[in-house]
Amino acid sequence: MIYKIQATSQGHFTRVQHYLLYSARQKPHGEFNKARWLYFGCSQLLVHTVRMPDSTYGRSDSYRVATTQDKADRSPKKKKGGTKDMDDLKKEVPITEHKMSIEEVCRKFNTDIVQGLTNAKAAEYLIRDGPNALTPPPTTPEWVKFCRQLFGGFSILLWTGAILCFLAYAIQAATEDEPAGDNLYLGIVLTAVVVITGCFSYFQEAKSSKIMESFKNMVPQQALVIREGEKVTINAEEVVGGDLIEVKGGDRIPADIRVVSAHGCKVDNSSLTGESEPQSRSPDCTHDNPLETRNVAFFSTNCVEGTARGIVICTGDRTVMGRIATLTSGLETGKTPIAKEIEHFIHIITGVAVFLGVTFFILAIILGYSWLEAVIFLIGIIVANVPEGLLATVTVCLTLTAKRMAKKNCLVKNLEAVETLGSTSTICSDKTGTLTQNRMTVAHMWFDNQIHEADTTEDQSGASFDKSSVTWLSLARVAGLCNRAQFKAGQDSLPILKRDVAGDASESALLKCIELSCGSVRAMRDRNKKVAEIPFNSTNKYQLSVHETEDPNDNRYLLVMKGAPERILDRCTTILVQGKEQPMDEELKEAFQNAYMELGGLGERVLGFCHVLLPEDQYPKGFAFDTEDVNFQTDNLCFVGLMSMIDPPRAAVPDAVIMVTGDHPITAKAIAKGVGIISEGNETVEDIAARLNIPVSQVNPRDAKACVVHGTDLKDLSQDQMDDILRNHTEIVFARTSPQQKLIIVEGCQRLGAIVAVTGDGVNDSPALKKADIGVAMGISGSDVSKQAADMILLDDNFASIVTGVEEGRLIFDNLKKSIAYTLTSNIPEITPFLFFIIVNIPLPLGTITILCIDLGTDMVPAISLAYETAESDIMKRQPRNPARDKLVNERLISIAYGQIGMIQALGGFFAYFVILAENGFLPSRLVGIRLNWDDRSTNDLEDSYGQQWTYEQRKIVEFTCHTAFFVSIVVVQWADVIICKTRRNSVFQQGMRNKILIFGLFEETALAAFLSYCPGMDVALRMYPLKPSWWFCAFPYSFLIFVYDEIRKLLLRRNPGGWVERETYY
Amino acid sequence: MSGTKAEERKGSSSEWRDAFWNPRTHELLGRTASSWGLILLFYLVFYLFLAGMFVLTMYIMLLTLDDYKPTWQDRLATPGMMIHPKGDQLEITFSVSETESWDRFTQTLNTFLSPYNDSYQVQMNDNCPPDQFFIQEDSGEVRNNPKRSCQFNRSMLEECSGISDRFYGYSRGQPCVLIKLNRVIGMLPGKNGQSPYVTCGAKRYRVEKERDEWREDGDKLGPLAYYPPNGTFNLMYYPYYGKKAQVNYTQPLVAVKFLNASVNTDINVECKINSNTLEAGSERDKFAGRVSFKLRINHT
């Protein structure tokens, strides 16, 4: 009963791996793709083991249902009814009709094979089963989503602030003759900030999910049914189970149907399974698995050619497609890692804000301040504590990265997913490109009955074989001529290995190899003019071309051919050994097989090469070679040799990798070894058994570090056994796992705390794509549904782009840290003025308006500019982030930002404040305790340290000048802060100041500060006053101190890796 | 199911306890004693250093200041004015018949005027030539300190001096209000021998908030008397040299006596300085070069 949906394609793949690698390369989205799942860096992986088909229709084995039930009960995870439904959906397809005879099916639906349903029956079924359409899942109303954005995160805090502002203003308006507008304006600004940020996030989210719509696009509109013996075209929605249906080439199939008769009918299941080749349909049951058998055609797939007639067995949500659609759109996706990080960060900041706010509110009441004053303090503390501009900054930073990735053909649909790739610890992919450099190079050759290592050095210093060998020259000639790749123009000055090539990966590899060892391939091709050519195709599985010979007197034609080694060998009767043509005997064939197995076992892609000089009498000069209807000899050729290529693994591939593939275990193991998932010298239990020549059961599993788990074994494993495997093996390969298990595997990984990325293109991948922390869909081959379910789309289907994504994601995580460190630092100089104002009764050094000017004005551009910072080190060499440990904002960042740099900044601001007051006549000693008189409107003869007397307004102007100076000082110290935040470990002298946006940011914030201070009218609008030029320099020593302090800190950090400084201050 | 939940809760609570105090590793809030010690020591040293740095920069800044004159005085271009007694929020309200209601005004006036007693002034200060500035320049680097001050005798306030009428007219419904011009170092409030003088009048005020309807209480104000005559601040009291150089400076006063103000009504009064050198204060500052207050005399 339990079948792998993709069994055939996997079988195909296995074959491909062994014999027809070349063909597989040519069809990147067909069979080759389906099955390789690679898991990165997931130290522990749990795979849900037993998944039984849920049999709703009669003939299933009853004990299996019981097992399923048992499993579900034992699973502690699922409790709610809704999840139970989802569990059902995750089980494999419950169709059994394909195994029934046509009569049985007819009986079941009370239908007739010729006449179809009666109209009455059809109407009855329609009422019973509902229309043949996909029902969208219940969605949250838009206004609820909007409100969620409006009242989440910092918003609550800011709303509190805004409401307190209005409240304070209302009280003032009621009690005072001329209330100051400050609180009203502040309230309005705060409200605006919240609403704008809320709208921003809302629109960001609103455009994401349209999965159901994309499914609906796949649903056909019309269907041709036979009812009461008449063919009628009806709306596809009205099709019911038991309807007799006719489809022809070009139609979409309106429901899941059991084929009763077919004439050359082929269906394209690619939208469902990703299988690109059309499959024929016939009335015979060819497979127990409904998805594999030929007599079932599926809802929303296309009939490519021919005609077929069938009985509808499932409609609407009960179809295979419907189940996937419901599953996909109903899946709850968790928060993205960056969203979790930001939430964590908001919790910290909110906690600090509320704690400080409440403490000082109570303190203010105890110290005898009025309620109104205490409320105003509370507002000030909240405003100072909340980095109002930060969420916008983060969004902008993510948008910038998304744009940068879009340029590299990585389209990011969900902004927050930008970072997710960077923290991905597990990539589930059916393509190895993620792990390799995507830079195919020739690794080995076999000729003269010997395996030679290819020399890939630019100066050919590593030669390991005799280049003058005739066989080698012949091999090089075949490889050079039977090759359509060529160097792009204008690269003669570049080293060969770095040149761009027009052509596919393995031909490019051959071209470069030949160019390196034998000189210009173009000259070779010029000497041997091409006469005819048959390019590679999947039926031939070879490529051949016919050339003139180099010798102008020799009028014979040279036929060269390359392709899958078996196919080539089959066409050869002789073999070139030591430059001499020898008949191909069994011994040589054996040698060939051994070489082929050895190279294949290294995980390399092997090609065979052969040639023949066509006899002149049969093919005289000018012979018209017809490549369509091959009119020349393509067998009895002379075998020359093998060349094998490898796509070198990326240095960045993390050490601990688990691979999940649909491949045959042996192939999977070879690939795993090739890309370094199973590292050299590690053995599996089977290897040990083979080496020691003992049965597998006698080997202690703990001796083996590597492990290959077969899909069929996987099903029978208990959870404990599974854990045991995961605990005791560092290098694990799962083979023969079906794509249907993707979702289950993704969930398993997520339960263990891994951040999972999934790639896929078919509709059947969409649940896993949606469930994954980041789903990556293919832009060209991907179905619409998979694109909708994914968070990211690779526009060029090039998996190397994922690595770009990982890199960008890690970079943005680092840069967001820097950005947040920068933004948070200025919180301390914003909060401390209030604290001192309340505790020591000095005139307020920094007002709420100026705080907003910093948070929403001067700090913004520098904070954003940090997103443009380049990486400090090779971020790809790092282990993926551990979400439990490596937080975006950790205590070390807070310690540095709040405890150290922020304190220096606050001192800089206070210094400017004291300078201005002292130079105006109020020495620091006079200030302490002055607040009550200072803020008293009726005291208009307040005496300063020199005996002069001040009116309220006069001293308030000085106070607001102080606010301006404090603000300017923060800008000045933030210069140094942004420069130190550029790097977390390196010195700025190592990193350089190449970030132009950052330099622009420095000038911009300074210009903005100057504008706010000097623009006429600012005294009325924002109560900011012009500063004397000398006051700009007050904070300079502190700015310099910040720079020097942090450079020293980073120096110590670099000098003592893992030392105290690193443990306490490396954020 | 509930069992697992309870277990979870138990697990998380013990986690919390571990986060606070982990008995196995002897960690308090995730740090061992030595770790706490080290980080606290670091912050102690760091903050001591910062404090030192701050004190140093403050010290340097204070060194740049002049002891006798602040660096900037541009905010004091127009000196403020103030009344005495100040009343409650610049509102002088009293009932003629109730002694207690004006008693505190006369009390504060007595205290305020005690340094102006003639005997004290004669003893401490010079009798300067009137209508000209009393300039005492320093000769170069040599300070001409302490600087002398001119006498302002209490008796110059005549009816409002509290000598002839010790209740300053409050007992008769003819209250005296003292007006002073804020001290500003180096300020010269007149030229050509013309002393600045105070005039008081009714203040235009808005009848109700939000409505653009203005009114003044000119008819309620009644005749006023100024002491010294014409309400002048004589030029000889200027310039002021600051409290360090001119320790015994006596701030000149002008007394305004409301001779026949309407009773049982609020009167908005505004007094302003008239000078040929002082510029008019900005509209925003209600106390630069002027002072306004509310007077209410209740009489039954």
UniProtKB/TrEMBL annotation, chain A:
One of its GO terms (biological process) is intracellular potassium ion homeostasis. PROSITE patterns: ATPASE_E1_E2. It is a multi-pass membrane protein. It comes from Sander lucioperca (Pike-perch). The gene is atp1a3b. Residues 269-283 have a biased composition (Polar residues). This is Sodium/potassium-transporting ATPase subunit alpha. Belongs to the cation transport ATPase (P-type) (TC 3.A.3) family. Type IIC subfamily. It is found in: Cell membrane.
